[in-house]
Amino acid sequence: MATALSMFKSKELVWYFISPKEYTSPKNKLMKRTTPSGYWKSMGKDRKVKEYKKTLVYHEGNSSNLVWTPWTMHEYLMG
Fold first, then answer.
1. What are the structural domain ranges in the chain?
2. Has keyword Protein biosynthesis (predicted)?
C-alpha cells in the first residue's frame, strides 16, 4: 500500500511529498521521475500557478511495456 511510503500516517487519499529536483543527466533539463517498478509521465501542458504546476500519471513497467494505473500526481515547481 502506498501509505507505507509516507512518513505521515493518514486515512486521506491525498498525500504531499516534497523532494529536490533530480535530472536524468547533468547535460539536459529532463526531470527524473522513475521508480523501481515504473515511472511518472507528464500529461497536458504546464500551467502557471504561482510558479508552475505539472500533472503526471503513473505507469508501471517501461515505455515499451507499460500498464496504466489510476495514480495521478500534481508536481509544483517553485523558483
1. 41-79
2. no
What predicted TM-score, i.e. pTM, was given to this entire model?
0.43
Q: For residues 51 and 33, give the distance between their C-alpha atoms in angstroms, rounded to a whole number.
A: 19
Q: Are 32 and 26 in contact (CB under 8 A)?
A: no
Query: pLDDT tens digits, residue range 55-78?
Result: 888 889 887 888 888 888 888 877
Helix, strand, or coil (residue 2): helix
End-to-end, the C-alpha distance of the chain in Å comes to 33
Q: Is 76 helix (H, G, I), strand (E, B) or coil?
A: strand
Residue 2 pLDDT greater than 60, yes or no: no
Cβ atoms of 77 and 52 within 8 Å: the answer is yes
Contact 41, 59 (CB under 8 A): yes
